[in-house]
Structures are given as C-alpha cells and as structure tokens.
Amino acid sequence: MANTIHDLIRRVAEKRITDNEGMFADYSQWMEKRFSDHWVTFDVSSEISDFGVVQWQRRPLDAIVVRSVIHQKNRILGRYEDRCYMFGLVDDEEFNMWRDAVAVDCDDAQSVSKWKVGKDFQSEWNAN
Question: What pTM value is reported for the model?
Fold first, then answer.
C-alpha cells in the first residue's frame, strides 16, 4: 500500500496524471494550483508513518498512513519549497476497494488523529 500511495502522489506531483475526482482530490487540487503558479516537482519522498488495522462493517482491514514530502522549485521566483502531506488509506482486499482516503498537511496532525480514532485504528507499528 505504501508503494501504491507513493506512486500515485509522485505521478500527480510530476503532472503525469490528475486525481481531482479520486482518492486524494484536495492534494491534487493543491498541485494544480502550484502548477499554474509555475512550480515544478523535482522529487517526492515518502515513508510509512504508521500502519495497522481498522474496523469496517465489523471486519478488520489493513490501514496505512504515509508521510510524503513534495520537493519543488520555481524558476521564475528562483526558489525551492518543500511541502509535507500525510496520506491515510484503508485497504479492503475482500471487495477490492480502497476506502476512507485522507490527505492532510503534515502540520495538521490533529486531522490524522481524528481519522485514526474515527476508524478505530489499532497501530501495529508506529515509525514516529
């Protein structure tokens, strides 16, 4: 799941795909605004922040939180900027679905905590 999230985030950041109606629409909309302001992504780094199990319809499902940093530059402004996002996702293999995706700025750790509590998230490992 971590690789899938990283690949999707990277492809959106590199302007190879859009996800405006997909899992991480807020992130994609932020990227579109950055592109219109002449920002170009030159790297995306991701790491697992946490993973575990949630309860969905009385079934235990795997869930993950990935921390990704989008590294960008703007030639016109002559500046570099990094932006950190946390991406959460629930994997429902039985129904071949990803559920309850969330994307929030890393500074908004409270939203990730609320997402975990709302899903009855039980960590199996915490990298932080």
Answer: 0.89
